[in-house]
Amino acid sequence: MFSVLLSLYIKEQSSHLKQSLDSLLAQSQLPDEIVLVKDGPLTLELDAVVSDYATRYRSLKVVTLPKNQGLGRALNEGLKYCSYDLVARMDTDDIAKPNRFEKQLEIFKNHPEIDIVSSWIDEFQGDTNHILSIRKLPEYHKKIYQFAKKRSPINHPAVMFRKSSVLAAGGYKHFPLFEDYYLWVRMLINGAKFYNIQESLLYFRSSSEMFKRRGGINYALIELKFERELLRIKFIDKSIFIKNILIRFISRLIPNKLRTIIYKHLLR
């Protein structure tokens, strides 16, 4: 038995939320509960969608936060309401493929030593027929551990994990832009075992704005702070720290069109 955890905030589009929820409710292995955290006040359209689905589907559990807390804090609050140890994450604008949960549960069933399972994701724009790129990740724990020293080793919207292992590592921390990456690192340090299914199990909604948001001096400075934290907790050494900073500062400060090309063709 497992839960699905989502966080919803005011800037989401109601049509995207419907697609996301419908994909959860059309799974070959249906979730036993869906915990949706309303992270602060929503639009009337979003509230109407949430109310409609909560009325029609008893498995949908709604958690309301009076003020926007940010992703990390909202997910931590949602975890408190997840009834089962296995928890799948999902973003409210992404679309799960029909056999996503079935394939992830099979890994947990056959490999009880595994704490966290994700997969590749198809990054699309507009509709799922327009795939821009596929974010592929290493399969086995040893390579995942090494990959994590340079980039996030897990596709967060496609992850399923053991709640107990997440809490043992301290849960999500409020670290803007890097809440999930920071959690994976602390779980790795804590001895959690990782696995990535070598196929895409989710459509990830992308846009030109996404690549634009990943640029600029402010993003670069936040990233510098994060890399310094990885150095502080001794997940990376000074040589990797310097290499990461050089590469990342360049990628954040180049023109958006060039950064888009790098993400689509070199990092995917």
TrEMBL record:
InterPro entries: Glyco_trans_2-like (IPR001173), Glycosyltransf_2 (IPR050834), Nucleotide-diphossugar_trans (IPR029044). Keywords: Glycosyltransferase, Transferase. Residues 14-165 form the Glycosyltransferase 2-like domain. The keyword Translocase does not apply. Signal peptide: none annotated. Belongs to the glycosyltransferase 2 family. This is Glycosyltransferase.
